[in-house]
Amino acid sequence: MTNAIFDTCRSLIRSFVGTSDPVEMDEEHPQRQGLFAQCTFAIVRSAAFTAKDAESLASELRLHDGEVIIDDYPENNLDLTAITHVIATTYDFPDYNACCDLLIPVVKPSWVLHSLARNKLGNPRQYSPDPRYFMSDVVACVSDLPEGDSDAIAGGILAMGGLFSTKLTSQITHIIALTMDSESCVSAQKRHLDVKIVLPHWVDDCLKLGRKIDEQPYLLPDPEILKPPTNKAPLAKRKTQVEGAVDPDPSQQDREPAAPRKLERVFKKKTVMLSNDLGISPYLRGILEEIVKNSGGKLTDTVTKANMFVCKYREGQEFKVASRSGKDVGNLAWLYYLIQTDEWTSPLRRLLHYPIAKDGLPGFPGLKISLSNYSGEARTYLENLINATGAECTKTLKQDNTHLITAHNLSEKCAAAKDWGIHIVNHLWLEESYAQWKIQSITDNRYTHFPKRTNLGDVVGHTQLDRNVLETCFFPSDDVEMTDVPEQAPMQQANENTVPTKNSKRVLSGKADATEQSNHVRTPAPSKFVATGKENITPSTTHSRKSKEVASARLHELTPDILLYEKEKKRVGGVVYGGRRKTDEDRVVSRKRSVDEAEDVDMEDEVDVKRTKRGNAAPSMHLVISGYKKWTGHPKLEDNDKKRLRNLGIICTTDSSRATHLAAPHIVRTMKFVTALAYAPLVISTDFIDACLEANEFLDPEEFILEDKENEKKLGFSLQSSRERAKSNDNQLLRGRWIYCMENIRGGFETFKTIVEANGGRCMLWRGRKGTTVPSGRADSEGVDADANIEVYLLSSEEDRTQQKSLWNRFKEMAEGSRKAPRIVAADWMLESAMSQQVLSIKEYELA
Fold first, then answer.
1. pLDDT of residue 825
2. CA–CA separation, 153 vs 562, rounded Å?
């Protein structure tokens, strides 16, 4: 924040309030209240927001009748009982959690500027410094995109803390467009606006990862992601968030803090306790004690007297007492970081600033994890994080590795991992497993997404610990060892801003009832209350009922954006790939405005979302359609028919796992048809679709059961029997079986991989890589037939007998070397086994 910015603000202020001096106004015309007359602000200083910046901002707030308190951390904590807003450039200050509990909005300084520019208090959620709202500094508009994609982009940006406008203004930071020829792009260039023009793919990738990534590869007019693919790996460009937090125990690396020196802020009037489990030498302990004392703090051996507790492990009576008393609990790396920067930071902000668990993270001991494409501090940080989970971090990748963590998928390690069936994930899987203290599913697309031309090393270290998870796992309120602990709200700042609660249990999920959370907090005194429509609602009474009403109102305000985001991120293709058309079912419609309208628009009112007609029938059928010729080459007819079907309660889906019904004109050997059979849908004729559209009503699907005796006889199975077996198999027909595919297999490897995995098997590409062995698959072997444990299959064709003879021979050698029986079979064996829902004998299909 600079004085030049505030000079700009003053010029805007004059345009709103005029140039006359209010002191000289006639007494018959009382002074008009300023924009912030009913607000009391606390300004939190930091390295990025100096005392000079804070004073400049305070003068602007006072000019508009706002009351201002500038913090004096760390000497004293803020008195939040009379504060309506906290202004900070970071969420990393001692009272942040107390503000959240008291529903006091924490906003960035830009909130003040934008509120003055519009002469209206802005929505604080769009200006939160909380990193979970990773789009908070994005103000976007869309240019010349289909309405379905525009709606999806708006929902995602708003849910993640950004702003969205349907017109171009001077406040726009990003224009989402497909070409530079669009109206908004041309206008932005003519007006020389400082905006980034990006492809919608950028928003899609950010939402998939839950992180804001670099815009450079997506910038028009020459976006890198649209260029032909190259084998050149993308390089990391950003400074990571792990500086000073790469090793939870720096004392083991012969690292010591700088020579004793006087710090100005971080230890002033603080009491520090160094735990005995740190295992540091008397010499090092003496250095640390001298630094603390020279900086205005003191040391103690009693945990109840300490403000800061430094230990190595998440265990022991002292750790639990300190944690439940709301003290700052960190490790030696955290203490070193405080000494290095002389700035307070929460030990929960960085994963390796908090004590580790001796026994590791459940599910991780025994895993062998290798890293690829991370370098420098990011690599060291991930290696130490893997060790902290209890898993083994290997320098090289071998077949006995269980996981490969990579920043992108262009490397020899990634190619080998694919051939060997090793799980390939990004670092978010590791970080979020550690933060949530539960191994995360690798089937989550967030952990297997690798944007083109982006090195995910840029976003290493953005994950923070969850205080509710820590309490639940390491010092729960019903812990028998904690009977003598002073009763205080767990994991909250130990000051007068929080209210002690007996045996309190934290809300662990945003889905929990907001009224439960209100029982743990005390609302501010009623001296300051702001009521500006739906925004800036601050609790104004100590009565629990009022607190519940406010909490409920805030959750209600957030719900539409969150629901829209959750809905759109699950949509096949995300935001841009095959996005929704104007006629699609369940779409959300936004108002359009001209780019030539006035600029001083209220951003948070820009998107007017509404649901489809309330008369639509509730969904009663999820229908997968295959082989239906009527819509081929007629996209408009398809859109219109699907909308009519949706109005009747029939949702057409491509997700076989959700299918309740499967429609086809006859038995077809398509991926959708064969995959869907594994989920035991009712198979009906596409005549059902025609009949429902003609009658304009939902007809009984039982009257349209598909009958195809000719193909049933030809393929040797019946649809009815196949469905019954599918129900019994429960997607585990191929459990424990390893099935390899030749690279040139007809239909493509991805087709067979989808079918095999829908039936519980493992499918891998066979390139004949030397040294390959069949994974043991012990975890999948229980309860499967004997053949699954001794046989391994290669899907090929008769044409490959001479052309790919060497690959067949290598496959046999690999299988026999793994003590398995090699079975080289025609692809028909796999298709017909999946269709009949029984593993067929390979006698008629074996090629060698």
1. 92
2. 13
SS3 string, 88-115, reads CCCCCCCCHHHHHHCCCCEECCHHHHHH
Cβ neighbour number for residue 10 with a 10 Å cutoff:
12
Residue 194 CA: distances (Å) to CA of 109, 170, 303, 603, 784:
20, 8, 53, 18, 62
**The pLDDT value given to residue 102:** 85
3-state helix, strand, coil in the chain (%, to 5): 40, 10, 50
What angle do the packed helices 110-118 and 3-17 form, to 10 degrees? 20
**Is residue 347 reached through a cis peptide bond, with omega within 30 degrees of 0 on the bond before it?**
no
Write a three-state SS string for 441-507: CCCCHHHCCCCCCCCHHHHCCCCCCCHHHHHHHHCCCCCHHHCCCCCCCCCCCCCCCCCCCCCCCCC
pLDDT for 239: 67
Residue 311's pLDDT is what? 94
pLDDT at residue 74, rounded to an integer: 58
| Integer Cα distance of 642 and 247 in angstroms | 55
DSSP state for residue 241 in the 8-state scheme: S
Instruction: Spell out, as residue ranges, where the chain has pLDDT lower than 70.
Output: 1-32, 72-77, 231, 233, 238-239, 251-262, 479-618, 776-789
Any idea which residue has 């007494």 for tokens? 27
The CA distance from 346 to 464, in Å, is: 10
Domains for the chain: give ranges and CATH numbers: 3-127 (3.40.50.10190), 139-211+574-605 (3.40.50.10190), 250-353 (3.40.50.10190), 368-461 (3.40.50.10190), 621-727 (3.40.50.10190), 731-836 (3.40.50.10190)
∠ CA 482-484-488, nearest 5°, is: 75
Alpha carbon 32 to its chain centroid, in Å, reads 45
Q: What pLDDT is stored for residue 495 in this prediction?
A: 47
Q: How far apart are CA 438 and CA 459, in angstroms?
A: 21
C-alpha separations of 71 from 51, 105, 531 in Å: 10, 16, 25
Rounded CA separation 142/528 (Å) = 39
Is the distance from CB of 128 to CB of 108 less than 8 angstroms?
yes
Are 184 and 141 contacting, i.e. CB atoms less than 8 angstroms apart? yes
Q: How far apart are CA 368 and CA 360, in angstroms?
A: 14
**CA pair distance 459, 633, nearest whole angstrom:** 43
Q: Closest by alpha carbon to 538, among 520, 519, 525, 557?
A: 525
Of residues 434, 461, 407, the one with CA closest to residue 131: 461
| Amino acid (1-letter code) at residue 696 | N
Q: Kindly provide the residue ranges of all beta strands, DSSP E only, lying in 135-239, ordered along the sequence.
A: 139-142, 163-165, 174-176, 196-198
Q: How many whole angstroms separate alpha carbon 313 and alpha carbon 275?
A: 10
| Token pair belonging to 349 | 């902000």
Q: Which of 63, 26, 60 is nearest to 43 (CA)?
A: 60
The residue to which tokens 């203490």 are assigned: 335
Quickly tell me which residue has 């609660």 as its tokens: 501
